[in-house]
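This part of the workshop introduces the protein records we will be handling. An example says more than a description, so a record of this kind follows:
>
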Amino acid sequence: MSLYAIGDLHLSFSVDKPMDVFGRVWKNHEKKIWKYWNKRVTDRDTVVVTGDHSWGRNLEQSRKDLEFIAELPGRKILLRGNHDMFWDAKKTQRLNEAFRGRLEFLQNNWFAYEDYALVGTKGYCYEGLDTYEHFEKIRDRELERLRISFEAARMSGISGEKADISPAFGSEEIRPAGNRKYIMFLHYPPTSIGEASSPFTRMAEAYGAAKVVYSHCHGKARFDDSFKGYVNGIEYKLVSGDYLNFKPELILE
């Protein structure tokens, strides 16, 4: 039983959005996803898909793309990406109910994998596409969603006692309850280009995350936008589809 991750499948079975205009690696990428996923992943494994699942602008347009993912082997946990227009963040529970037993949607909640809590949110980094003030507003909203995910998992580790409200983030170290271990998932990279740390990396450190897994970075020029490898005791992994040549990345075995 293993844990894998991959992001940015960018499926478009119901809309006209060919991906090979972004490079040869995207040519017939759906076939690559099917081939390598079936080659590596068994029905006993879990795969976290870190956003940008479908180019569909609503659930109906995205349904074939989600069905494609659902038919792949293993347990599938989906994170919201910036292009996932079908996914209303306030209605995640509806998606979990609609796809119960086939797909799970990670937003303001958490999922268990062995003795790890899988937590996450879309995240956000500054790419110069909006004002810095607007960036901060979106980033802070995503930080709160990530905190909710961590706290839901943290509180679940407390049994036989009343759980206290955790300290405000940044005020002191947050001790995981019940020996909970975390793997943190983002769609966006955890830092903006050139940052040595960010509120996302500091939150990962505060909760004691073992790994941070993210995607969104496409093309060789973007693969080094953020952390890879170990930083302050946390392992950072980039799992963008084209970076992996669409082979799911082993996270834990």
User: Anything to note?
Assistant: The radius of gyration is 17 Å. The chain has five helices and eleven strands. Residues 172 and 206 are 8 Å apart (CA to CA). The helical segments are 29-40, 59-71, 92-98, 132-156, 199-207.
